[in-house]
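Kindly inspect both lines:
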Amino acid sequence: MLFAGLFDLPWWGYALVALGLTHVTIAAVTIYLHRCQAHRALELHPVVSHFFRFWLWATTGMVTKEWAAIHRKHHAKCETVEDPHSPQIHGINRVLWLGVILYVKESHNRETIERYGHGTPDDWVEHNVYSRHAIHGLFLMGAVDIALFGLVPGLAILAAQIVWIPFWAAGVINGIGHFWGYRNWETPPPDASLNIAPWGLLIGGEELHNNHHAFPTSAKLSAKWYEFDLGWLYIRSLELLGLANVRSVAPTPRFEAPKPVCDAQTLQAVITHRYDVLQRYAGSLKRTYREELERLRRWSPQDAEALRPLKSYLTRMQRLSEAERLRLSEALKNSKALAVAVAMRGELAALWERSNASKEQLVRQLQDWCQRAEASGVGPVAEFSRRLRCYA
């Protein structure tokens, strides 16, 4: 009797049902809550939007305004004491295993909800059903699961639905996504966002967390050919059916013949594609490092050994500790070329960080940077500068 339900399935059938139902919840979170509501990267047809609202109410009890507000605050206060769930602040174990507690705690902060929760659903259903009776959706879903699959399988499926988002979203993405993985883009410090895996299947593409922090208003989270964003596949399918409208995706660099001198259009292109610029410059740094390491091996093996451990520093220049910065500074004393390359990286990044400079001033600074880069005698830096003049 405990297993009596409308459907009598083998154990693996119940497992597949649980996996399917939790995947619908993942799709609702990434498409509706995250990309649509929190970041306005796309618009959804009212029928699709309300289905996702209902489904999230029935399977998680989450309130749209609360989720969007907490996530927006995470971006605004990333890796600071005001970040609701940074593992850099709270520790990886606490965020990974108890991330849902941090979420619930922040959801009671009315200042956060009112400041960051604007533009979310504000209709009668939201006020009188979804927000007012958030927990009741889980009772409804539990009753449906039991009726369809029986008491024990139904409760087991409901339990999977309840813990799926708290673990994967509040724990894995918010925790591991800021603690371990790889980076495509050097987002401004103290942002420590990382891509967990190139194949975003279990969490609908949300594993590509560094890509998202670099371009938060992009409806597409994948950036490299080997990365797969399942949520984007669903969004494109909805768009083809006329049920979604993509508002923004990450900009794709376009190149033309190099201009003799950088102008305002070049400046705008460099600022727009600044993450791509920094990524390409990182390649120049690595080439300079390899050339200098080979030169020092021939003429000063001791200095080469001091330089060898610093390779990883060059790919995370903005996230070095004070001790690492001092160590890098000491090592660069023995390599003029690498010192020039590192210094010019900082000057290049300063172009889009100087909010008080006029466009004309920034254009002149970019022109001066290119002139000095091409006269520096550092081959990879000079080559990069010529490439920079190709941004269109």
Summary: Residues 8 and 199 are 34 Å apart (CA to CA). The first strand starts at residue 42 and ends at 44. The radius of gyration is 25 Å. The mean pLDDT is 92.
